[in-house]
Amino acid sequence: MNIKKNEPIVNKIIKLHSNNQKIYTGNIVKVYIDHIYIQDGNSPTIATYFNKYNLKKTFNSHKISFFFDHSVLSINKKISWQIKNALNFAKKIKANIYYRGEGISHIIAIEKKIFMPRKIILGSDSHTCTGGIFQCLSLGMGASDIVASMITGKIWIKIPETININIIGTPHETVRSKDVMLFILKKYPIQMFLYKSIEISGEWIENLSIDSAKTIANMSVELGAKCIFLPYGKYRPEGMYKIEKNNGDYNLSISINNLVPQIAKPHYPNNVTNIDKLSGTKINYVFIGSCANSSLEDIKEVSKIIKNKKIHKNIHCILTPGSKKIYLKSIKKGYIQTLIKSGVIITPPGCGPCVGTQGSIPSDKDKIMTTMNRNFIGRMGNPKTNIYICSPIVAIYTAYLGKIPKIEDLKL
How much of the chain is in helix, strand and coil states, percent to nearest 5? Predict the structure, then answer.
């Protein structure tokens, strides 16, 4: 198949999955799907569609997976009932099942190689975009689109424009990939990236670990993007395309020279400021986890920082590993023991408190520092709270100090 060298990655992948070779921006093209996965939060809706329209057979049960990650520890009988029914539905259609405690769908999709270069993956969760770490065209879809693709193995896609983001420079030593994404959210309006495909280039991002790069891919939906593609790097699978600088319909160059840790204030991920603007703000709840920052690398770093220290007496601090594999490795390496000794509460692998369907549900007027990707009103199950977003480094220092730290407090 003749694929032009300078063709955007999204166009190349769509061309590989379509009988239509007229792959131009704005065209609506039917493509074949490599895998579909569903999470427990919206699987009841999907099951309802099947029942309503008397649908019986999927296109390929081996290419459909169900993940039970949002409500690992159910907080009420309604959620327990929904999980039971979703599980029965998954068994009925003979899908792959990842039970409660296995971990977050997007993290397991990396571990189980569901996300692979040049594949098209659909997920019933907006953070399916995480697959962009391996140049997988991974798309979050609503229930009706997921049902249609489960039956046919196909989906219609409108080909998006491409934005190339070239990252240049070197940030402050305490800056992590989370800070860079928050900085981009602060710098540009969401409308700039809405329904765009993002290709990221630059030496800094090419040298990121898989754990760090995952955070970049994961938060592309917060920018409003349709999909994202990260460059080839260490430990990446073969088959990834080279990302050319200035190869988009629009091209941005973003300097991160001297960038300092960033924090998103309530109630939007793009309501971002430098850490020193908020230093000293009292916090009483810290959550480290979610599909954005629950990796082995994250747990290792916060464990190292809090070793031989104690969580502040006014802080309720929770850490949730992203998967069972990450949890077991963290136990083996002693990170979990260190965290428990410090006063951190460890919950089973999964989404944790992020969406408010598991707990701990915060109290009214709580000020919460989290490593999540969203801080909308009511995000953790209570609309009468204030949620801040930061990197795991800032989160664990906040838990230790009982307040948002200064840059000079962040000793690695």
Answer: 35, 20, 45
Q: Which of 253, 80, 63, 79 is nearest to 167 (CA)?
A: 253
How many Å separate Cα 60 from the centre of its chain? 26
Give the model's confidence band at 22: pLDDT under 50 very low, under 70 low, under 90 confident, else very high: confident
* Residue 412 CA from chain centroid, whole number: 25
24-36 as b/e: b if 16+ CB within 10 A: eeeeebebebbbb
Contact in structure between 291 and 218 (CB atoms under 8 Å):
yes
Q: Cα dist. 287→130, 275, 314, 348, 373 in Å?
A: 20, 18, 14, 13, 12
Angle at 299 between CA 293 and CA 300, to 5 degrees: 135
Pair 226, 196: CB distance under 8 Å: yes
Stretch 345-371: mean pLDDT, rounded? 94
**Which of 219, 231, 163 is CA-nearest to residue 195?**
163
Contact partners, residue 155, CB within 8 Å, separation at least 6? 30, 31, 33, 122, 139, 141, 145, 148, 149
* Type of residue found at 303: S
Residues in the chain: 412
Q: Considering only residues 131 and 20, tell me which one the structure prediction assigns the higher pLDDT.
A: 131
Q: Mean pLDDT of all residues in the chain?
A: 94
